[in-house]
TrEMBL record:
Gene Ontology molecular function: any one: voltage-gated potassium channel activity
Domain of life: Eukaryota
Organism: Bracon brevicornis
Protein name: Cyclic nucleotide-binding domain-containing protein
Signal sequence, start to end: none
Pfam families, alphabetized: cNMP_binding (PF00027)
Amino acid sequence: ILGTLVLCYLVSQAMLMFKGRNSSKLRYQATVAQLKQYMRHKQLDKNVQKRFLTYYEFRYQHHFFRESEILNTLSSQMKLEIGMHSCRKLVENVTFFNNLPVSLLTRIVSQLKSEIFLTNDVIVRSGQTGNCMYFIATGTVAIYTELGREICHLEDGAHFGEIALVMPDERRVANVIAVETCELYRLDRNDFVKTIHPYPMLWDRIRKIATERHEKTMVYDASH
């Protein structure tokens, strides 16, 4: 009898472990099933449905977690550690972050907000007032002038939109469109000013980059 009880206990523990490992995947499948049902109910176009599913697949990688609830249970230090780990490739690839003091780098990373854009999504629209800049974690974006002329492509590790941070009254001078599914990290102007204020040399460096890009875009449009 004792042997049978031990066997039952081991089997039950194994089942709990299996269930725990697969619970996030099951939640993802249930969420996607609910999404499909919702889209059918709304009679959405098939292309729209495909974009929704592409977004979910890229965003959750077939596992669904209630991340905000999990993070709310953690200390500020643990949240920072998760943020630094999540952005480690971004920090390694973005030249903007090179040679920054660790304390400043940590503060900037803690202010970044992840956003996902699908192919052909307009990320930045020319003529609109900007209030943030973006860092490319993965993916490719195309930069176009206000007149629709392509300037270049930017890939992993690049950044754009810094003009909005240092020239608050200046409108966007270019359109930025996702060439493929992209994961970007957004830095809002208010967070930027608050974080960078004690570092005037970095402020000047970013202002120089923004001014050069602004002039390049204006000259490109004028010469074509």
